[in-house]
Write a structure and sequence with these properties.
Blueprint lengths: L18 E7 L4 E6 L2 E6 L3 H11 L3 H11 L1
Antiparallel strand pairs: 1-2, 2-3
Helix pairs in contact: 1-2
């Protein structure tokens, strides 16, 4: 879920996996998910590159501009 738009931008299905723990690494914006089948790396570092597109779809042009401006 985007922290900017509150919409789902990434979805991961864990068929057959029993998730036992999850840790977020702020330095790399990565979730490390531990399951009965191993460790899954979920990289969220590109979230802001998706946010402006979602904001444009919602016709929130000034917010989209500010997201792009903050990124550069």
């Amino acid at each position: 879920m985007s922290t900017i738009t509150k919409k789902i931008i990434m979805y991961e299905e864990f068929k057959g996996n029993l998730v036992s723990d999850m840790v977020f690494d702020r330095a790399s914006s990565t979730f490390w998910i531990f399951s009965n089948r191993g460790v899954i790396k979920l990289d969220t570092s590109q979230e802001s590159s998706h946010a402006w597109k979602l904001l444009i779809e919602e016709k929130k042009y000034e917010e989209a501009y500010n997201v792009c401006k903050a990124k550069n």
